[in-house]
Amino acid sequence: MAQAGMKTVSGAPFVGVLFLYIAGFAALNNSPLGASPVLLAAYVGFALVLYALWQRMPLVALAALFFVVMPFVVFDTLAHRPDSFGYEYILGLGFGDMAARYKAALLGQESSWFLRGFFLFLTYPFANHAIPYEDGGFIPLNLFLLSLAAMTLRGLAADFAAHHGLSPRVSLIVQTALALFLLSPTTLCYSNGLLKDQASMLLVLLSALLFVRRHVVLGFFVLCLASGVRLYNVLIVFLYVMAVKPPGKTDYALLFAFFVAMIGLVRFDPVALFNMVFATGYVYVNPLPYKIENWAFPTGLATAQGLFFFWGWAMSVVQILAGSLRRKGLDRIAWSIALYGCVAVAVGYNNVVVLKGGLYDEWGLGGDDMMRKTMPILPLVCLQMAYALSCLFRRSGAALPHRSYEATKKIAQ
């Protein structure tokens, strides 16, 4: 319930402001001023700070400043990923040729690589076609998509708190989750290239939020877009919904059926099953901290994050074992994150065995690779960490200024 005396924000003003933000970025990106990545990033940062202050989230406003600056600080022209090369080539074809190649790929007349570029159609007005990778041309696009993902995560975090008896801690949980997400080295390390990860994450979060708030038709529409970007996003959306929605009597049956399906996808392969167990920890702790090379800058930031996130993993064990927390449904988020580790292994297994016809025989496979593989579930891990940290501060009465849950809920209405 909304606290007495606390102002609310209706859905219409927020949607209007959001539309202006999106349209403003597209207009700026396609104007002569769009030739400056720094200016585009400044626009994102300014808008995100204003949004955070409007929603009474000062911690998020502070995090937003580092969020837009750090990608330029750690930018490395040598860290140009192969898939970014491919997507840059597709983007350079222009919208018409992109569509023609995509249609040909659907008909089997063109390389299937063009099917992977579906997200480029969705982000075409926001992607800069003139600034090369070496000049940080794709940093503003990634910042823009991640800022929208952060706004969506705010709604999911508020719903999570309200549905699990945590309303007194909603301010602390929401602001901590968003700050951790914006400052995460995981997103930072992949913010320089033209990749599908950011667009995929945004669509997953939006689809999950719509399903949680029972906007089923819109949820399915966004889910179709998300599946076009990454086929297995339907599995990820399911895990988000299970983690955030109010606890129900069929939750355990659904989660168990999901786990059985993952086992079926790996054909009961013992190596894959072994890797699934370890992947539940890799989701939190990655890259592996015992390898010296993983402490080199900027990867070392993500390694340090993994050690910090270990607290979230430890708390997830408590949430599963403690009966009082299970009755509140707080074990669902722990199970959902653990099951995502199974999804990551199942996808890797099918890529090796089914698509490439290889042999899946590496025990512990996916440890270091999990850094990028965990990006789809990173917002949920940040939410789990926010809850874990709120447990540390609840006795101190820590509270942060924040708009009410009822106000947050109106955003998607």
Description:
The protein is mostly helical and 413 residues long. It has one domain. Helix content is 66%, strand content 0%. It is built from 20 helices and no strands. The two termini are 17 Å apart. The N terminus and C terminus are likely disordered.
Helix content: 55-70%
Mean pLDDT: 89
Order of helices and strands: HHHHHHHHHHHHHHHHHHHH
Oligomer: single chain
Count of structural domains: 1
Outline the biggest β-sheet: none
Low-confidence stretches: 1-10, 407-413
Radius of gyration: 21 Å
Task: Say how many strands there are.
Answer: 0
Name the beta content range: under 5%
Distance between the termini: 17 Å
Shape: globular
Number of helices: 20
Q: Determine the structural class based on helices, strands and strand pairing.
A: mainly alpha
Question: In terms of topology, how is this protein built?
Answer:
Elements: H1 11-29, H2 37-54, H3 58-73, H4 82-92, H5 95-106, H6 118-123, H7 139-163, H8 170-183, H9 185-189, H10 197-212, H11 216-229, H12 233-244, H13 251-265, H14 270-282, H15 299-321, H16 323-327, H17 331-355, H18 370-373, H19 378-393, H20 405-409
Task: Supply database-style keywords.
413 residues; 66% helix; 0% strand; disordered C terminus
Brief summary of the model shown:
By secondary structure, this protein is mostly helical.
